[in-house]
């Protein structure tokens, strides 16, 4: 099948490429309709990754958050035109211990492999899931990001000790918002405290119990466990503040992506007997849990609607650049591309 793939070849330069794609008997062909820009895509587009990483990954189609309509399904599991979410992680093996999103052999769309900026996307049937009608296209477009939060909270449930009266979330951006929302849905009686740098962003966390500016963290209650959702330049100070605020034997979930190594006060990690674990990406089970949460807690969709920032009609490469520029200027929220390529 001939397909057009829109690949980033250098910072801010996208070129269309005609490729011949093999469609197997277990595959599904999806026509993308709504794509969501992630900070990881933005770092590639703007050339903020290291020269080594750019040389290793490009040329490559960006975007790993998106939905579409089924154009063709070999096994008949999906109906033509059915609305589906596309799973970017494609495992090529199974492991009894290591989850699919941590297997080094897994192929991830938009990181070393072409993402969803294509005319048509060919995926194994296991990498496609039907969406409930109750979720809008714009919110459904960033279901992958929600599934990452569901994955991290699920791991917290497996790793953290059972005293979970008060949990702190560091980060007032998209990830902090979604993690807090998933915590509220999965642990309705938990005292959730959010720490951030921007009062106007914290004002949107209406579903949590308390919010604090990080400059006022000394007045916050001690916490049993914590989620770090900052990354970048804010990761070091956030982790340091968490270590100061958390009770002994608490668990710290690291979710923020940092390009550079982050110093950690290991002396206090040892003295308090803390446990730190990282979470990244998600697997099919996390997507299924996310869609189940959408069905069981319809208020989640209402809160997620508030994250929809600009919605951009995209019918040309110039439109793609405009969407990425709009995303780079936003203070918060998700930038959605209505994909008409």
Automatic annotation (TrEMBL):
It comes from the Bacteria. Its cofactor is Zn(2+). It is an enzyme of class 1 (oxidoreductase). Keywords: Metal-binding, NADP, Oxidoreductase, Zinc. Zn(2+) binds at residues 38, 64-65, 144. InterPro entries: ADH-like_N, GroES-like_sf, NAD(P)-bd_dom_sf, TarJ. The keyword Cytoplasm does not apply. It catalyses: D-ribitol 5-phosphate + NADP(+) = D-ribulose 5-phosphate + NADPH + H(+). The keyword Lipid metabolism does not apply. Its EC number is 1.1.1.405. One of its GO terms (molecular function) is zinc ion binding. Residues 24-133 form the Alcohol dehydrogenase-like N-terminal domain. Belongs to the zinc-containing alcohol dehydrogenase family. Catalyzes the NADPH dependent reduction of D-ribulose 5-phosphate to D-ribitol 5-phosphate. This is Ribulose-5-phosphate reductase.
